[in-house]
Amino acid sequence: MSLWVDKHRPNSLQKLDYHKEQASHLKKLVNGGDFPHLLVYGPSGAGKKTRIMCLLRELYGSGVEKLRIEQNTFTTPSNKKLEISTISSNYHIEVNPSDVGNNDRVVIQELIKTVAQVNQLESASQKDFKVVILTEVDRLSKDAQHALRRTMEKYMATCRLILCCNSTSKVIPAIRSRCLGVRVAAPTIDEIAQILQNTCKKESLNLPVDLARKIAEKSNRNLRRALLMSEACRVQQYPFSPDQEVTEPDWELYLKETAGLIIQQQSPKRLLEVRARIYELLTHCIPPDVIIRGLLQELITNCDGQLKCEVVEAAAYYEHRLQLGQKAIYHLEAFIAKFMAIYKRFFEEGIADLF
Amino acid sequence: MIFLCRMDIRNFFGPTASSKKTEKTKLENGSKVKTEEKKKEDKKKHKNEQKETKKGKKIKEKEIDSSEVISIDDDSDTDLNSNKRNVKTKESKLKKSPAVNGKDKSPSSTKKKKKHSVSDDDMEDEEVVSTKKKTKGKKTQRIVDSDSEDEPSSKKTPKGKSKLKAKREIEDSDDESKPRQNTLDSFVKSPSPNKKPKQELKKTPGSEKKKEVSVSDFFGSGSVKRTERSTVATKRKLDDIDVTDDVEIHDDDDFQDTLKQLDEQQSKKAKIDTSPEKSIKKSSETHEEESKSQVSEKPSLASKLSAKVSKQLLEDTPVKDNVNKLETFVPDTPVVKSPKKSSPQKFTKTPEKSSPRKSTPKKTSPSASKMEVTPKSTPKHESSKTSPGKTHTSPETPALERKASYRSYLQREGPRALGSKEIPEGADNCLEGLTFVITGVLESLERDEAKHLIEKYGGKVTTSLSKKTSYLVAGRDCGESKLQKARSFGTKQLDEDGLLNLIKTLPGKKSKYQIQAEESFKKEQKEALAKKKSVEIPSETDRTSNKLSQFERKPSTPSSSKSHVTNKTDQSEESLLWVDKYKPTTMKQIIGQQGDKSNAKKLLSWIQNWHKNQAAGIKPQGKFFGKDDGAGFKAALLSGPPGIGKTTTATIVCKEAGFSFVELNASSTRSKKSLKEVVAESLNNTTMVDFVVGSTAKTNGHKHCMIMDEVDGMAGNEDRGGLQELVQLIKSTKIPIVCMCNDRNHPKMRTLSNYCYDLRFQRPRVEQIKGAVMSIAYKEGLNIPAPAVNEIILAANQDIRQVIHNLSLWTASEKSMTYEQAKKDSSNAKKDFKLGPFDACRKVFIGGEETAGMTINDKSDLFFNDYMLAPLFVQENYIHVVPFSARGDVKKHLSQLARSADSIAEGDLVAKKIGSNQAWSLLPTQAIYASVLPGEYMRGSLPQMVAFPSWLGKNSSTGKTDRILQELRTHMRLQISGDKKSLNMDYLPYMRRSLTDPLVHRENEGVPEVIKIMDDYDIIKEDFDNIMEVTKYPNSKDVFGSLSSKTKAAFTRAYNKEVHMTPYATGVASKKKKGKGAAVDEEEIYMEGEGGGEGAPAGDSEDDEEDNVELDTMIKVS
């Protein structure tokens, strides 16, 4: 009894619900014989992985769905042992090299070499290449990306790479140019609402359109989250009512409360409290860019006009810093302190203007 | 007054000599004075005035106070009486004037009294030098007359008798004075026995008198003479007033030491000279020079006085005619000197005073005396001072020193020269032995400055008054209680000017430490010489001593072999560090280890009784049972901070105990193996020294021991297993083992210390080190004031080795060092002391004096204290700071916070660059951003303790969560499509709900459903718990926790009953994951690059292990 997200995942290109044109392109690509390296990118919850799996099924048939988890051990030049788990079928191997942090270069070099150096035994019935899926490529170190560049060309004969990432901005151009970019955009609200309704129909449920749209909007166009939300709604209350409360994850509520605290009072003491809450979020592995965005969205609703610009500018400034720096709390705190200073000043000036 | 005088005199004479003798000496002095009067050019003027006015003054005094009148009468009637009194008073106030000056002194004392009682201004001026000098001249003249007058006074008191005798003597002295001039050299070389005793007697009684004359005595005598002097004083300049005050102050305690020395010198001189003639000669010579200078300075005065002087000279002695004016002054001066000398004797209560000694005149160095002379500016003072010094001093070099010291002593008393300007520089150590209490607000000095000033000149500043307090420096708004206390104790009160004047006028002294050093050095030399003569043929012992002598020794022990000296000159001096050169060679020389209960003594007795105790089979006792003699312990552990003599103690104790020793220190490899091979064998060895050395060596064959130095340095691969082996060795050793370490409480030492006799070394006190350092300085010919040495010692934190090294370094270019220099260098040295991260962080933010003077470099140095931790500390604590700049304005405060936070964030960027590009040259940039700027923005008060950075802990738990997520994702990977992030943010909140809701709503019936979900997603029970933990927020309700225990138990039982197939390995395999921290973080928080694939399946023991691992990695991160 898996969750709906996993239970109703489409498993072939034909069954995909949106970006159908792209799906047909991919199918042609497979059938055309010459299969390039792919760079699949798009926001979280847009269906990248699903699409990749559909593609593999198109390539190799249902054999790719027999998955197994393997442990691989690599040794760094400094004699350090690295272990990384991979998911593989007979035809492909999926790995997330960033799991090993800064030593991802070793993983990439060794793993791809071992995979690529073995030819497929039966070239008649199968493609003569295997596929290596690298996820979260945007979090690969520069070293690893450079290592990847050469490997991609050298083992072109026996293996294809499918790189999967959220954003291409952190993928070096050398790799981008060697791949066929496939952008999987997030589904629109309408598409999500439609999918939700279809899913409910499969579950023999009746989901009101309004609720479907409401969930879709709440999900930030993240289909995975939308599906999970709708299932949560189902658990919470059935039959659905259009004005039903859509439960949000705890961390999101927590973040919103934090933003509320900031608006409520601007003082050093409050800053300390907020810091503690931010730490709480960070220790739960909520990405800091999510935090800063969430904060901004809440804070901005209490601002107007000139102040809004100022706050957004500050948020952008510190979000950029966030990406450049290494200790997220510094930048989050700097943003909050900045906001407090701006807000307090604006507020007092506003009062002064009144009199 | 008379009674007082009588008492004093009796007392003085009692112990030493007859009163008659003293009187005689006085008389002689008087005669000298007569002859010497010519010298004082300035004085002459005053003298003339005084002569004219003396009688008148006396009359005035009588009118004022009855007691004064009496004394005045005595003075006028008999020079002798006046002399005696004068001497007493002089001693107290002025070192300058001897018996002859007595008249002068008496006026001075009277002046003082006047100051106290009547009007200070006029009196003060007159009091000091000028009046005395003038009176001296008068006295000499009067003496002849006085005889007749004295009779009544003599009848009244024993003093009168003495006076009579004195008169006779005076006549003699006059006669003598003539011959003196004729053959000065002859006298010096071969003093007549008759004269010698007289002088000695004179001096000694004088000294006694002075001793007895406490403050009260001084006052008493002073009052009588005042009136006269006051009149004289009025004529003189105002400057004198200050001088007089100073003089009084000096009398109390300050000069006791110097006085003693002077006494000793005097006695020596007396013996040597035997006759005043010699002294006169010397004085005349010196006086000539001085007088010349004086003349040049103030020719007008000289010319004026010259007439008077010449008259006096004619009357008194023919010698004067021969000599120039300067020469004439000279004779006066010697007279003055003798009383002065006597005065110091009076002050000192020690028996030394009574008996003449040959001790070297160490107290006043010639340089100091010169210094003093210059500041005093008045030629009169100089002449008077110098002259006495010369008379006293023997022709030898030490005599010169004495003279100098005497001069300086005189200077303090002397009135200011006309038109001369005061010089703020005081003589070295001029305040030594004085204790000050500062109260209220001084006019131009801050309290710190005043304190520094006093300490610079050797004075001591305390916070509360006691009987020992010499002066109360009272400023504006001073504490009433202190004033009252001062009154009750009779403590003298000064204002700021008084203090400055004190410094200006007090003569310099050698610090007692320096004196000690010199004495010991001289003794050594003498002994060495004696030895040299005695020992012509070098014996074996000599050879050995020569070897030993290379390490030269400390001042405290006078015993040093001649070889010592010779070696110094020969070889060791150039090549050895001072630390080695002055290394102690006997136990007595070890600083801070002389006591009976000292560690060195304990160690010595322990090592001497070692074999006995072992043979007796005594078991080691605890420290708190029985006597702490370490009997039964097979080894000793000396512990203490570096540089306080642990190693030295051990080696010397071994030598003293007659043990030969093998020393192993950090320079040797001390692994288990080498210890076993090298040391273990040697423990049963006997020494060959016995056979080689032969008869002289008395060491038994088995008397050797092992010294294991720096045992806490036995670490690392080189010395692996060394400590354990050492413990084994100690258990089985047949010889004593002495171990040494710095930190006894270090965990590494724990085992060892159980088997060792525990001897803990403390840092020696500053005074203990000071003596040694001063002696080294003396031997090296350095000129360093004692206060400077103090600073150096404190700066080195009482590390003797450091002190000596610093001294050597700082005096490498120049042989002398001022207090300021020392202070500056010391503060530089202090900088090297390590600041803890908490203190450093506090210093970053704290405002006020502590950080006011810090430069930007100082501030960034705070960062470099620990450049890894410092930014974390700053970030943790900057919010707590209440910035001064905000002044309570929240808006301003917030904007400062924002600026600080911005700067800190900027610093983080730099840190990232440094980390990723190894751009360590950016570190100073980071220092500015991460520490200096926030500190500047926020500078203010820190109302709470500096908090330890929470980032470290948070980062650690972030890592843990990340690892859990990684594991979960690995487990669920076959079913879900998302990565770790989406798993965390999207799946888990709903997963949590779907896993708990069935249990909450349906309790036991929901269990199968939950287990089904878990199986579908391939998660095990641990994952279930992890999910609960990861998704728990402070605002979320703890659903699972609220379940009934029955349901939980049912769930656990049901889960364990079935076998759950997972696509991943569980259990054993997980252990392999050790050492891999999951380091995938979106912000790339982790710099260590130690992330490991978390693909391994979860095992039961995984969490604990990974926690540890995580902690380790975190440490590296920070």
Automatic annotation (TrEMBL), chain A:
<dbReference type="Pfam" id="PF13177">
    <property type="entry name" value="DNA_pol3_delta2"/>
</dbReference>
<dbReference type="Pfam" id="PF21960">
    <property type="entry name" value="RCF1-5-like_lid"/>
</dbReference>
<keyword id="KW-0235">DNA replication</keyword>
<dbReference type="InterPro" id="IPR027417">
    <property type="entry name" value="P-loop_NTPase"/>
</dbReference>
<feature type="domain" description="AAA+ ATPase">
    <location>
        <begin position="34"/>
        <end position="190"/>
    </location>
</feature>
<protein>
    <recommendedName>
        <fullName>AAA+ ATPase domain-containing protein</fullName>
    </recommendedName>
</protein>
<dbReference type="InterPro" id="IPR008921">
    <property type="entry name" value="DNA_pol3_clamp-load_cplx_C"/>
</dbReference>
<dbReference type="Pfam" id="PF22534">
    <property type="entry name" value="RFC_C"/>
</dbReference>
<dbReference type="InterPro" id="IPR050238">
    <property type="entry name" value="DNA_Rep/Repair_Clamp_Loader"/>
</dbReference>
<dbReference type="InterPro" id="IPR003593">
    <property type="entry name" value="AAA+_ATPase"/>
</dbReference>
TrEMBL record, chain B:
<dbReference type="InterPro" id="IPR013725">
    <property type="entry name" value="DNA_replication_fac_RFC1_C"/>
</dbReference>
<feature type="compositionally biased region" description="Basic residues">
    <location>
        <begin position="131"/>
        <end position="141"/>
    </location>
</feature>
<protein>
    <recommendedName>
        <fullName>Replication factor C subunit 1</fullName>
    </recommendedName>
</protein>
<feature type="compositionally biased region" description="Basic and acidic residues">
    <location>
        <begin position="197"/>
        <end position="214"/>
    </location>
</feature>
<dbReference type="InterPro" id="IPR036420">
    <property type="entry name" value="BRCT_dom_sf"/>
</dbReference>
<feature type="region of interest" description="Disordered">
    <location>
        <begin position="1072"/>
        <end position="1118"/>
    </location>
</feature>
<feature type="domain" description="BRCT">
    <location>
        <begin position="426"/>
        <end position="504"/>
    </location>
</feature>
<keyword id="KW-0235">DNA replication</keyword>
<dbReference type="Pfam" id="PF25361">
    <property type="entry name" value="AAA_lid_RFC1"/>
</dbReference>
<dbReference type="InterPro" id="IPR001357">
    <property type="entry name" value="BRCT_dom"/>
</dbReference>
<dbReference type="InterPro" id="IPR003959">
    <property type="entry name" value="ATPase_AAA_core"/>
</dbReference>
<feature type="compositionally biased region" description="Low complexity">
    <location>
        <begin position="330"/>
        <end position="348"/>
    </location>
</feature>
<feature type="compositionally biased region" description="Polar residues">
    <location>
        <begin position="180"/>
        <end position="193"/>
    </location>
</feature>
<feature type="compositionally biased region" description="Basic and acidic residues">
    <location>
        <begin position="260"/>
        <end position="292"/>
    </location>
</feature>
<feature type="compositionally biased region" description="Basic and acidic residues">
    <location>
        <begin position="20"/>
        <end position="40"/>
    </location>
</feature>
<feature type="compositionally biased region" description="Low complexity">
    <location>
        <begin position="215"/>
        <end position="224"/>
    </location>
</feature>
<feature type="region of interest" description="Disordered">
    <location>
        <begin position="14"/>
        <end position="425"/>
    </location>
</feature>
<dbReference type="InterPro" id="IPR047854">
    <property type="entry name" value="RFC_lid"/>
</dbReference>
<feature type="compositionally biased region" description="Basic and acidic residues">
    <location>
        <begin position="313"/>
        <end position="324"/>
    </location>
</feature>
<feature type="compositionally biased region" description="Acidic residues">
    <location>
        <begin position="1100"/>
        <end position="1110"/>
    </location>
</feature>
<dbReference type="Pfam" id="PF00533">
    <property type="entry name" value="BRCT"/>
</dbReference>
<keyword id="KW-0067">ATP-binding</keyword>
